[in-house]
Amino acid sequence: VQLVESGGGLVQPGGSLRLSCAASGSIFSVNAMGWYRQAPGNQRDLVANITSSGSAAYVDSVKGRFAISRDNTKNTLYLQMNSLKPEDTAVYYCNARIIMTDGRIWEDYWGQGTQVTVSS
User: Fold this and answer.
1) Which of 39, 50, 85, 113 could be disulfide-bonded to 56 (CB atoms 3.0-4.6 Å)?
2) Given the DSSP bridges, would you call strands 9-11 and 27-38 parallel, antiparallel or unpaired?
3) Could you please report the per-residue DSSP string of 19-85?
């Protein structure tokens, strides 16, 4: 199984980016998914998560600016990030609970991360 993030990059303050995370492999189903971020010297923190039915939750610092969504037909997770601030600069990681076709369960499967840099 793989989780592959894309969409990171360099953006000016106030700009927007859309991150994607595609799950692939012998997947039976993908349950809860989430985005985390880790800035240099900091721990990895939750940004937003979403259940398989679409219920979403956000950390206070991104409420009203970020929107998490998913396409269950494509096993893909998205994060629309608007009004970006320099403090949003971090490596963003995708996380998912995955059930494989052979019955194995990955409780916390991580992608490799994608860098988001907000700077003028």
Assistant:
1) 50
2) unpaired
3) EEEEEESSEEEEEEEEEEEE-TTS--EEEEEE-TT--EEE-GGGTTTEEEEEETTTTEEEEEE-S--
